[in-house]
Every structure is written in structure tokens, then in C-alpha cells.
């Protein structure tokens, strides 16, 4: 019996397909750890030059709950300037707009718009998880999406929302809202991705994996990309899986996927290890030589010596791959139109292997 396809209208502005980096926050090496905007500017341009298709700020990797509203806006203004200075004023910048109240999330969406964001990433409320029933959950997303100037991407990450896990029925219901355009599945549930892509086209509701260690399966299942913390450290390698898949070079994509999956294991352990890896492998390239720049913000602690050694070993499998891939800049155009400087454009509403 055939699956019933959705007949909801295509959305007006969709998150472009590809690999996105949930960018870490970088701090000055002081007791109060002020945001280091110069470091954020440098890191942003490094990631864009690495071929990533978009960036996410003030998500989980960005330590959003530890940043003030003014800090969030300062960062967004800084990175919008960084991409504009690269000649990419329309480069996709996704901003976390997750608050515990509807009012707070709406205000965060308005602030992010003013500061230069392109899309909003929204977790479900979770402060009192038992009170977030189906009616409250749907009402929250619909009310925020009604008033958000930004198209909303649902962020499903039960690990940071007291176990609240949006299932495929929840997501299918919310997908009908004209300003809810996609979902990031950090739950890692590929079956959920299959159920959603069997019903919706990417122009109706796009599906992204929550990390790059299952990017190839996500694409094969009908998804359009991923958001991966490992891209803070190895932007070229993570973006390359997607590019190879789109070009129809699936064997190469799968070979690289295997290496990336092993390197990303360090990111699964803790944010502190992701940040340490970025400092160790990228910091010197950007003249960011103080390890404290890459420490988590208090009260969270940096990785200890044993875990640092382990991270270098685990992530180190990608160093050769990263160095071998030539740099490029993605992001010329939005809504599914990608072009690398000096290369041919990738223009499809949903990536399809040749």
C-alpha cells in the first residue's frame, strides 16, 4: 500500500541543504570569560573557507544557555560581518532562539533577525518536562513560528531537554505550519528521518541529521544534510561527504564517512572535547594560541590531560584527509542554490545522487 504523501504547500524560504557547523563560543582568557569577538570572526571565516554550507550559532555547542542576550546579538553581528567581508552577504546563518517561555523565544527570534540571522533553531521547552504535553508542545512551536521573523528549524535533542523527544507524528503535525521549515534530528533516529522523508518533500519540510557520523545514511534516507560539531575542527572533511554524495561519488563518500564517524566519537563524549579539539587542531592556524580561548564557560570544566590525549588520537585520523581536501567557499545563494568559488554550482531543491 503506497504511503500517503503530504499535500501541504511548499515553504517560501527553506534552509539550504548541506553540512552546517554548530559553532562553539570562544572566550577571552579572563576570570569572567568575556566573548572574544575577534576570535569568533576568525573562526567563522575559517569554517566558511572550509566549504561548509552554513553555520549555526547559539545552539548546544555554542553554549547558548550561558550567554546573555546582548552577547548573542554581538556574536551574530560579528559573524554576519565576517561572511559579508568574504563577499557572501546572504550566507546562511542559523541562530538558536530557544527559550523556556514562548515570549522569550519570540524575543530571541526578533533579536536574532535584527543582528543578521537567516533562520532560527528552536528546542522544545523543558524546564518542567511533565508540563510539556502535546497541546503545550504544539502551541509553543506554533505561537513562536507565528511571530518569528525567521523561518523556524525544529531542534530535537532529548539529551538537553529532560528527555522530551518529538516523534515523527509530532514533527509531521508541526511541519504543516508555513513558517516551520525543517528539523535537526540530534536524537540520531534514522527511522524517524525515513518516516518524515517518505511523507514530505524537502521543499515542504527538510530533514537534517544531528551529527556527521550518520550523514551518509541520512542522505540515503532522503534527508538533505546535517549539523555537526566536528565541523568546528574539520570543516573540509565533513562538508566533503555531502559534496561527494551529491556528485554521485558514493563509494568515496562512504569511505570518508567511515573516517569521520570515528573522529566524531570524541565529540559525542563532551563539548569540552569538541572545544579542545578545535583549539588543538585549528587554534594555531588562526593565531589563537591560548588554550583558555577554547575552554567551556564556567561552571563547566575543560578536558583533563588524559582525555585530551585520547581526543588527539581519536580525532587525529582525520588530519590527513582534511589536509588533502582543497579549500573552497560555499554559500553563494540560498534556498537550495549553492556555488563554490572557482567551481560549478550545485542547484537542486534536494540533493540527488547522479
Description:
With 354 residues, this protein is an alpha/beta fold. The chain has a single domain (18-347), classed as TIM Barrel, CATH 3.20.20.70. It has twelve helices and ten strands. An eight-stranded parallel beta barrel has the order 1-2-3-4-5-6-7-8, surrounded by six helices. It has a two-stranded antiparallel ribbon with strand order 9-10. The longest helix is centred in the last third of the chain and has 20 residues, at 250-269. The protein is globular. It starts with 17 loop residues before the first strand and ends in a 7-residue tail after the last strand. Mean pLDDT is 91; it is low at 332-354. This is Dihydrodipicolinate synthase. It comes from Lindgomyces ingoldianus.
Helices and strands in order:
Elements: E1 18-22, H1 37-49, E2 54-57, H2 69-85, E3 93-96, H3 102-115, E4 119-122, H4 134-147, E5 152-156, H5 168-174, E6 180-185, H6 190-197, E7 206-209, H7 215-220, E8 225-227, H8 235-246, H9 250-269, H10 271-281, H11 305-315, H12 319-324, E9 337-339, E10 345-347
Parallel strand pairs: 1-2, 1-8, 2-3, 3-4, 4-5, 5-6, 6-7, 7-8
Antiparallel strand pairs: 9-10
Features:
Dihydrodipicolinate synthase, about 10% strand, alpha/beta, globular, TIM Barrel, 8-stranded parallel β-barrel
Quantity of strands, as a count: 10
Structural class: alpha/beta
DSSP helical segment count:
12
Largest sheet: 8 strands, parallel, barrel
Distance N terminus to C terminus? 28 Å
CATH topology name: TIM Barrel
Give the full name of the CATH homologous superfamily: Aldolase class I
Unreliable residue stretches? 332-354
Cross-sheet strand order for the largest sheet: 1-2-3-4-5-6-7-8
Helix content class: 25-40%
Task: Output the radius of gyration.
Answer: 19 Å
CATH domain class name: Alpha Beta
Residue fraction in strands: 5-15%
Q: Could you report the average pLDDT, rounded to the nearest whole number? A: 91
Amino acid at each position: 500500500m503506497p504511503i500517503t504523501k503530504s499535500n501541504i504547500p511548499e515553504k517560501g524560504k527553506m534552509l539550504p541543504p548541506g553540512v552546517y557547523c554548530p559553532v562553539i563560543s570562544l572566550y577571552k582568557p579572563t576570570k569572567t570569560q568575556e566573548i572574544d569577538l575577534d576570535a569568533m570572526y576568525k573562526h567563522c571565516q575559517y569554517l566558511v573557507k572550509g566549504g561548509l554550507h552554513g553555520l549555526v550559532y547559539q545552539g548546544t555547542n555554542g553554549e547558548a544557555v550561558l550567554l546573555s542576550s546582548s552577547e548573542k546579538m554581538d556574536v551574530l553581528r560579528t559573524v554576519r560581518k565576517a561572511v559579508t567581508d568574504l563577499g557572501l552577504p546572504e550566507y546562511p546563518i542559523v541562530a538558536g532562539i530557544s527559550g523556556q517561555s514562548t515570549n522569550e523565544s519570540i524575543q530571541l527570534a526578533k533579536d536574532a533577525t535584527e543582528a543578521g540571522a537567516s533562520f532560527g533553531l528552536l528546542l522544545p521547552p523543558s524546564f518542567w518536562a511533565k508540563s510539556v504535553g502535546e497541546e503545550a508542545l504544539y502551541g509553543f512551536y506554533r505561537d513562536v513560528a507565528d511571530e518569528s521573523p525567521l523561518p523556524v528549524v525544529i531542534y530535537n535533542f532529548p539529551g538537553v531537554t529532560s528527555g522530551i523527544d518529538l516523534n515523527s507524528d509530532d514533527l509531521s503535525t508541526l511541519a504543516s505550519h508555513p513558517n516551520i521549515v525543517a528539523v535537526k534530528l540530534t536524537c540520531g533516529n534514522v527511522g524517524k528521518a525515513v518516516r518524515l522523508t517518505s511523507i514530505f518533500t524537502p521543499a515542504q519540510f527538510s530533514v537534517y541529521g544531528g551529527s556527521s557520523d550518520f550523514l551518509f545514511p541520512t542522505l540515503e534516507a532522503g534527508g538533505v544534510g546535517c549539523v555537526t560539531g566536528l565541523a568546528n575542527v574539520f570543516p573540509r572533511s565533513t562538508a566533503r561527504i555531502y559534496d561527494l554524495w551529491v556528485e554521485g561519488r558514493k563509494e568515496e563518500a562512504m569511505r570518508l564517512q567511515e573516517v569521520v564517524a570515528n573522529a566524531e566519537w570524541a565529540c559525542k563524549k563532551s563539548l569540552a572535547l569538541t572545544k579542545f579539539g578545535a583549539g588543538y587542531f585549528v587554534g594555531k592556524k588562526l593565531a589563537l594560541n591560548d588554550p583558555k580561548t577554547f575552554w567551556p564557560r564556567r561552571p563547566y570544566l575543560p578536558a583533563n590531560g588524559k582525555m585530551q590525549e585520547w581526543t588527539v588520537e581519536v580525532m587525529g585520523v582525520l588530519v590527513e584527509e582534511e589536509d588533502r581536501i582543497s579549500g573552497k567557499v560555499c554559500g553563494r545563494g540560498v534556498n537550495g542554490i549553492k556555488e563554490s568559488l572557482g567551481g560549478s554550482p550545485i542547484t537542486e531543491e534536494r540533493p540527488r545522487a547522479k
